[in-house]
Design goal:
The chain is of the alpha+beta class and 235 residues long. The chain has two helices and twelve strands, in the order βββααβββββββββ. The protein has a five-stranded mixed sheet with strand order 6-12-11-8-9, with no helix packed on it. The longest helix is centred in the middle third of the chain and has 33 residues. About 5% of the residues have low confidence.
């Protein structure tokens, strides 16, 4: 038997909830609604609840949307009275091109007119400032009197096997030293201080040198620097 609406007598629509029990299921009625007058009845025990139909809510939402679309957007009034239309991009581009053209023309005029005027005037030639130099007095050279030969000779014997005899000699400035090859083989006498050129001496040959400066001088036999000697010249 169908239930009727107590207000209008229309057949009620029953909403149910399916609940599983064991291997089967049972549908429990939870509410009844009249499709004509929207009368509702809660079958769960909470009492009659009068709810707003879904169809009516959707209609009101559409009305609100239409009102929002119809409502015009009100722009703020310009109280100063000086409102002007916004400049278009084409007018801004034209203004930029005009400014650039003015700058280019100004640069060309500067190059041709200003630079030419400067060239005509000429750059002033800087007068060189004379540099006055004070002559620095040259110190007088110290004259070292030349030592004359004393005529005194000192003999030094050279021998590749037995060595140099004596290895060290002390003489006075102006004395002469005589080196003699006392061995069988030829030798070459070398001055470590570059006093004279290398002397090649065969057997019994000799060479000499007069020492006119004080100091210590050394010599040796070429190809054997262990055979060396020293000449000490005193004033």
């Amino acid at each position: 038997m169908e239930d009727k609406c107590p207000k209008c007598g229309e057949t009620l629509i029953t909403r149910t909830i399916k609940k599983k029990i064991g291997l089967g299921s049972i549908e429990y009625p939870v509410a009844q609604t009249c499709p004509k007058c929207n009368w509702n009845k809660d079958l769960t025990g909470a009492g009659d609840v009068v709810a707003k139909p879904v169809i009516q809510d959707a209609g009101e939402a559409k009305k609100e949307e239409k009102k929002a679309q119809i409502t015009p957007q009100v722009k703020p009034l310009d109280l100063t009275g000086t409102s002007k239309p916004a400049a278009s991009p084409s007018s801004i581009n034209s203004l930029i091109m005009i400014v650039l053209a003015i700058l280019v023309v100004g640069a060309i005029a500067w190059v041709f007119f200003v630079d030419t005027a400067e060239e005509k005037q000429g750059n002033p030639v800087a007068t060189p400032t004379p540099i006055i130099t004070t002559p620095v007095p040259t110190p007088a050279a110290t004259v070292v009197p030349e030592v004359t030969a004393s005529g005194k000779q000192t003999s030094v014997k050279l021998e590749t096997n037995r060595g140099i005899n004596p290895q060290s000699v002390t003489i006075k400035a102006g004395d002469e030293v005589v080196w003699t090859n006392d061995g069988t083989y030829a030798v070459t006498l070398v001055s470590s201080d570059g006093l004279f050129e290398d002397k090649f001496l065969n057997n019994a040959k000799r060479t000499n040198y007069t020492f006119k400066k004080t100091g210590t001088f050394s010599f040796y036999l070429k190809d054997d620097k262990n055979l060396a000697g020293t000449i000490i010249v005193e004033p």
